[in-house]
Amino acid sequence: MSIRRMLMLIAALVLIPSMALGAVTEDAFARWYDHIAYLTEEAGIRTVGSMGHDVAYYYLLEEYERIGMSYDDETLWKSGCIANGYDAFNIVGVKPALNENPRIITVCAHYDSISPGARDNASGVATVLLAMEYFQQLAPYPDTELRFIAFTGEESGHEGSLMYVENLTPDEKQRSLATFNVDILLVDAEDTQAAFSCDTLGMRTEDGYVSGTEASPAVNAGARAILAAMEETGLFDAGEEGVTWCVPRHLGASDHESFHLSGIDAVNVCFRGNVAEGGSWPGVMHTPEDVMGDFDLQRSRQALEVLLTAVEGLAADHGYGG
Ligand SMILES: [Zn+2]
């Protein structure tokens, strides 16, 4: 361990209880964890068409309403799709802007899973709930609308997000500033090599990965906002690849790709395994072992802080996307 890293650790231990981590309160973080435990242990496997999927769906709808989203004022709506051969729904929560024709920032994650899915992706969808609850407490932004989406059908081919993006009007696409997808925001305590990561375009070709296109560059507003938030919060270190880093990677395969492919700046915020070995996903992903475990919750909490700071910075137009 380098001296610098040791000093950072000591600083983190001494400072964290009293400093920053302002957005993610103890209560909010406890609820985030409870959502994960519920989805993993009560809903269980959430393949589209299964009972677990429906349990999760109704649980999430209830949470959206508890947080204040409502069908009456159209801050809550469902967007349908066919996923895994079934009719299924994405859940969309909206925090409207004050003015007309606002920019749109989306925070999203998939709630379907092919395993009990604590990591993949109860941790992501719990993050959408946490973010929605946080921003509900804030005054509306003049010119930024926030959307919080729980997608279905990610595991069966990104069907939920592809259909959602297809249904956006050209005007909505044009006003879309950035999308923050969250897929796996839990890291095992023993996995000291796991890295905080911000993935952009994840188009896999036979030769490997391709970078962004002119319509959707790999380094985009979302990635820039995450990097700016890391700098502002002092959490994670973009320069320290191998332990904690955040670089736009051409990896992914999650719902951010659906946005990317239609020209909307999007990132996937996640924890990845050993970066030196290619930043693979956790070994238990997509297995029955993706259950609750001994997690490094402090790192999740820091990642949540970075995410909220990034969204807030971009929403309030603090130059985060520039
Ligand atoms: Zn996933």
In short:
This protein is an alpha/beta fold.
Q: Which labels suit this protein?
A:
single chain, alpha/beta, binds zinc ion, two-stranded antiparallel sheet, globular, Aminopeptidase, eight-stranded mixed beta sheet, 9 helices, 18% strand, 10 strands, 322 residues
Task: Give the SSE layout.
Layout (H helix, E strand, L loop, with lengths): L2 H13 L10 H18 L7 H17 L8 E8 L2 E10 L7 E8 L7 H19 L7 E8 L7 H9 L2 H6 E7 L12 E5 L4 E2 L2 E2 L11 H13 L14 E2 L6 H6 L4 E7 L24 H19 L7
Parallel strand pairs: 3-4, 3-5, 5-10, 6-9
Antiparallel strand pairs: 1-2, 2-4, 6-10, 7-8
Bound molecules: zinc ion.
What do you see in this structure?
With 322 residues, the chain is of the alpha/beta class. The protein has one domain: Zn peptidases (Aminopeptidase, 3-Layer(aba) Sandwich). 37% of the residues lie in helices and 18% in strands. It contains 9 helices and 10 strands. The chain has helices at residues 3-15, 26-43, 51-67, 118-136, 159-167, 170-175, 221-233, 256-261, 297-315, and strands at 76-83, 86-95, 103-110, 144-151, 176-182, 195-199, 204-205, 208-209, 248-249, 266-272. It has an 8-stranded mixed beta sheet with strand order 1-2-4-3-5-10-6-9. Helix 2 (26-43) crosses helix 4, helix 3 (51-67) runs parallel beside helix 4 and helix 4 crosses helix 9 (297-315). The longest helix has 19 residues, at 118-136. The model is unreliable at 15-20, 202-210 and 241-245 (pLDDT under 50). The protein binds zinc ion. Zinc ion is lined by residues 110, 120-121, 154, 183, 254.
